[in-house]
Design goal:
With 782 residues, this protein is of the alpha+beta class. The protein contains 19 helices and 38 strands. It has four domains: 311 residues, Beta-galactosidase, Chain A, domain 5; 107 residues, Up-down Bundle (Glutathione S-transferase Yfyf (Class Pi), Chain A, domain 2); 101 residues, alpha-1,2-mannosidases domains (Glycosyl hydrolase family fold), CATH 1.20.1610; 173 residues, 2-Layer Sandwich (GH92 mannosidase fold), CATH 3.30.2080.10. InterPro entries: 6-hairpin_glycosidase_sf (IPR008928), GH-type_carb-bd (IPR014718), GH92_a_mannosidase_put (IPR005887), GH92_N (IPR041371), Glyco_hydro_92 (IPR012939), PNGase (IPR050883).
């Protein structure tokens, strides 16, 4: 059957018809496959900050539409470049964060069009005021590795797909319509607009343009290089420096190389490119990125040697199906869609940041050569050490997990300060957030037996970070046993987070036989006790003279105050390695349960935390939209009341996640919110990475089979699961009764089957005994 594309039948309508007639057409995800289950629009609305565009698992290119509003000095809603509430598209750029709380990237923006040339983007509220175009969600389609939309004002149908280093565009123009493209290097996704330090455009031949951009955004001095290849020669071109009002023009007949090869440099570069009237109405564009040079970007184009868009889309879909098939999940809708979408979002970062020849750019902004590993960046460590990285040790290949660790170690070796990354992207350090949370990522991988990195080199990098005095009040922490608030802001949070990181160093050192290092850091891991006020029952900031800071208000939260993006109500349960110590401070199991209930059941004013955009997803004082609260619902298990955890995770899943664009209650934070959902849906959660234990909540999937990196399989089955049957009545592991309320990592990696029998009423005896409770550094009191 032949279908002719005309302006009367938009591209997306044709694709929908053909998909029905021919399942799997043009590389689309096969019905019933994990990729087909993903709703990439979850989180693109509200404060989720995800993007809907095309990328590969952990890929270097994230090719996605940008809808952000310019010149309004407020970019938080557009941290990923796209917000589902918008009705116009600015263009399609090649780098994006998924779910970050800070905006940046948006490199190499292209926008196809027909008709009159407009060199400014224009305004959403004024159609045709610039090259921006209106669109409708009814004419928008996306799935893992693919995005398509109709640009109404520009009269172009756009499709996007990607390999790891190359983005591929397919534009379809109307009959007899000229094909034109705007390239705008002024644009970026960054607070308060573009932060270009310098950029360059260079015409290499009639079909190739290369360039670079250096920015001073979140990561100062970030350099990115690119090569753009068109499927047909330019008939005319116009390179502009809008800052200096300089224009370079060149014209060529189709198929001929321009006589001149102009280069334009400056801070406000753009290009207007024309391609005549394509006989088939199509123009394809390949864009390769490089952290090293324009020539390297050209070399990276060879990753995608042809122009078969449908074949590339199929390869992207296959890559995603292979990755998502690490878990075979069975559940009614919308749970199955939400689970696979969470798994998808968990596989977007850390992202590859290395050329095909192994070269990359490190935190010293110099070029280095990777040997035996693939360099990755975009480590949102304050968020992702909690659940994302532990999830990846179960669902990502061992080589990929080793690449992450080797990338962190390499970054430490190249760091001007000799420490591990704090929050890095494109190889550079942003110094965002607190802690030295690369440490638990490495320790957790080592404790779980991930091979392929030098453990001695890793431990050296970890202790170097933990002992770097100028960072975050560490010199005072090492001297006093806590971070003093009169010397360092957010001191209470820093103290307890440093203590957890120290514990993970001790765990790894102990397993390596380094008893001296282990003893030092086990002692430091108890420093959280130095900021716990038994009188109030809260973690509090102390002065260097020893007294707690007064006056004290447990709901107080401000940037730079005693706590990081939270209040005492969110931070006072942060000693995940030693919850028996917390129970002791509070006065016993019953007191912990009562305190946890007080957190969740508190009646608070709607505006109590309104001034802190990160404190979202509130259930009482519990803030699921931000990471410090993520382990809290699982603390009931440590007090022998797993049934209360089962109630709380049911409450959280029902209220904080939905199968719709605003379906995340807070920033996805490079996959952490999604990883929490994925773990919780399976039925357990890694409260203390490095412990090799997972605290059991309750399952939300009827059945899930994990295909593990060691090629074994572990199945979780929930017999009798329903809306009414939300409690665990009993559990068996490989046919034997499981009476403890946690799993060990080796339980999973050995393969086998975990069966939960669900019921409508709580079993208050299951997991009650102290011997059934999860690990803590301080033994449970007897």
């Amino acid at each position: 059957m032949t279908v002719r594309l005309t302006r009367a039948v938009p591209l997306l309508s044709v694709l929908s018809v053909l998909a029905v007639l021919t399942p799997g057409l043009a590389g689309a995800a096969a019905p019933g496959s994990p990729a087909a289950a993903v709703n990439v629009f979850i989180g693109t609305g509200g404060d989720g900050h995800t993007f809907p565009g095309a990328t590969r698992p952990f890929g270097m290119v994230q090719l996605s539409p940008d809808t952000q509003v310019r010149h309004f000095r407020q970019s938080y809603p557009w941290a990923s470049g796209y917000n589902y509430a918008d009705n116009s598209i600015l263009g399609f750029s090649h780098t994006h964060f998924s779910g970050s709380g800070h905006s940046d990237l948006g490199d190499v923006l292209l926008m196809p069009y027909t008709g009159d040339t407009k060199l400014e983007p224009g305004y959403p509220e004024r159609p045709h005021s610039g090259y921006r175009s209106r669109f409708s969600h009814d004419e928008e389609k996306a799935e893992p590795g693919y995005y398509a939309v109709r640009l109404k004002d520009n009269e172009v149908d756009v499709e996007l797909t990607a390999s790891e280093r190359v983005g591929l565009h397919r534009y379809r123009f109307g009959k007899d319509a000229p094909a034109k493209v705007i390239l705008d290097l002024r644009q970026s996704i960054y607070d308060y607009g573009s932060k270009n330090l310098w950029s360059r455009l260079r015409v290499r031949d009639a079909t190739t343009i290369t360039g670079m951009r250096e920015t001073r955004g979140w990561a100062p001095g970030r350099q990115l290089y690119f090569a753009i290849k068109f499927s047909r020669p330019m008939s005319a071109r116009q390179l502009l420096n809008r800052e200096e009002a300089i224009e370079y023009r060149g014209f060529a007949s189709p198929g001929k190389t321009p006589a001149e090869k102009p280069i334009v440099e400056g801070k406000a570069l753009m290009a207007n490119l024309e391609f005549g009237v394509p006989a088939d109405g199509q123009l394809l564009v390949k864009v390769a990125l490089s952290p090293v040079s324009e020539d390297s970007a050209i070399a990276n184009l060879e990753e995608m040697p042809g122009w078969d868009f449908d074949a590339e889309r199929a390869r992207a879909s296959t890559a995603w199906n292979d990755a998502l098939s690490a878990v075979k999940a069975e559940a009614p809708e919308p749970m199955r869609t939400m689970f696979y979408t969470a798994l998808y979002h968990s596989m977007l970062a850390p992202s590859l940041f290395m050329d095909r020849d192994g070269r990359y750019r490190g935190p010293d902004n110099q070029v280095h050569q990777a040997k035996g590993f693939d360099f990755h960046s975009t480590f949102s460590l304050w968020d992702t050490y909690r659940a994302l990285h532990p999830l990846l040790t179960l669902v990502a290949p061992e080589k990929r997990n080793a690449d992450f660790v080797n990338s962190l170690i390499a970054a430490q070796e190249h760091s001007p300060y000799g420490i591990l990354p704090v929050w890095s992207f494109h190889g550079l350090e942003t110094w965002c957030m607190i802690g030295y949370h690369a440490v638990p990522v490495i320790a957790d991988a080592y404790m779980k037996g991930i091979k392929g990195f030098d453990a001695n080199k890793a431990l050296k990098a970890m202790t170097a970070s933990a002992e770097y005095g100028p960072y975050g009040g560490l010199e005072h922490y090492m001297k006093l046993g806590y971070v003093p608030i009169d010397k360092e802001p957010e001191a209470a949070s820093k103290t307890v987070e440093y203590a957890f990181d120290d514990w993970t160093i001790a765990r790894m050192a102990e397993k390596m036989g380094r008893k001296d290092v282990a003893a030092t850091y086990y002692k430091r891991a108890q420093n959280y006790r130095n900021v716990f006020d038994k009188e109030t029952g809260f973690i509090r900031a102390r002065k260097s003279t020893g007294e707690f800071r007064t006056p004290f208000n447990p709901v107080q939260s401000n940037f730079g105050s005693d706590y990081t993006e939270g209040s005492a109500w969110q931070y006072s349960w942060y000693m995940p390695h030693d919850n028996a110590g917390l129970i002791s401070f509070l006065g016993g199991d019953t007191k912990l349960v009562a305190k946890m209930d007080e957190v969740f059941d508190a009646k608070i004013r709607d505006d109590l935390y309104a001034h802190m955009e990160d404190i979202s997803g509130l259930i009482g004082h519990y803030a699921h939209g931000n990471e410090p609260s993520h382990h809290v619902a699982y603390l009931y298990n440590y007090a022998g009341a797993p049934w209360r955890t089962q109630e709380r995770v049911t409450q959280i899943m029902a209220s904080q996640y939905h199968n719709r664009p605003d379906g995340l209650s807070g920033n996805d934070d490079l996959g952490q919110m999604s990883a929490w959902f994925a773990f919780t849906a399976l039925g357990f959660y890694p409260v203390a990475p490095g412990s090799n234990e997972y605290v059991i909540g309750r399952p939300f999937l009827d059945r899930a089979t994990l295909s593990l990196p060691n090629e074994k399989r572990f199945t979780i089955r929930a017999d009798g699961l329903s809306e009414a049957n939300r409690y665990i009545g009993r559990a068996t592991l490989n046919g034997k009764p499981l009476t403890r309320s946690f799993l060990r990592h080796e339980d999973i990696t050995a393969g086998g089957e975990l069966v939960f029998t669900m019921q409508a009423t709580p079993n208050k005896d299951w997991g009650k005994e102290r011997s059934a409770r999860p690990y803590t550094q301080t033994p449970y009191q007897h």
